[in-house]
Amino acid sequence: MIDPRHIFLTGSQGRLGGELLGLLPGVVAPSLERMDLTRPEQIDAALDAAPDVRVVAHAAAYTDVAGAEKNRASCWAVNVDGTRNLVRAVSQRGLRLVHISTDYVFAGTTGGYREDDPPGPVRNYYSLTKLVAEQLARLVPHHLVLRTSFRPREWPYDNAFTDLFTSQDYVDVIAPQIALAIQRCDEIPYTVLHIATERKSIYELASRRRPDVRPSRKADVAVALPDDISLDCSRWRELKQRWESR
Ligand SMILES: NC(=O)c1ccc[n+]([C@@H]2O[C@H](COP(=O)([O-])OP(=O)(O)OC[C@H]3O[C@@H](n4cnc5c(N)ncnc54)[C@H](OP(=O)(O)O)[C@@H]3O)[C@@H](O)[C@H]2O)c1
Question: Would the CB of 82 count as within 6 Å of ligand 1?
Fold first, then answer.
């Protein structure tokens, strides 16, 4: 297990990053004010100030999916250019990169996507930038791309779809698994790994934290949504079983 003091975290003020910050006490986690990924010199300064770091966990991103359609340049600047800047700095220092990616690199038609299934076609601009970012992350000699999906701790809506399937879960369920994968990245014999939970409808997921949630259908909203964006997580399940049985 890698000591959190050897881990450097981007996006620590975000939904996932905030959870990781609590789960990895001592992790090096500069704020956006100190390290803007679009400023290469700030990345260099932050990494130079943390000489004991061995692993960089990259959870920062432009994640406003609707906003990305209107502000493409902002989304590209953070998710693509920012990741490229980080990749350069990480590679130059011989560090390991754990890059957080998304189920939305897949089309969401068939579900049950495995790590080596071809991604795309993507459904929106945010997903395009995340797919490009994955390819940049893979340029780091020691890299691990973690594809995941999560919701805030509480279900925020009155309704939830019965006809949209996912393997996502609440962030407090997913984050401990991401933290474990980061801390054991040296022991993961893959370069891409899916971390989520079992396939279920969004309604089923919502009901777990909000029993009075009402069922709805995708046809009720004007946005084009996937049918089944679920990830096959058998690699991750097998890895955890192997670790637990030791
Ligand atoms: N949320 C989901 O459902 C979901 C699903 C699958 C994968 N993911 C991935 O998981 C990761 C974390 O997502 P999240 O939901 O926790 O996102 P989030 O809450 O939006 O957090 C992202 C963090 O990145 C920071 N950031 C934005 N631009 C930056 C820049 N130029 N330089 C440095 N930091 C910057 C943000 O700072 P500010 O808040 O100050 O802007 C924020 O702290 C992302 O890679 C995302 O693509 C998310």
Answer: yes
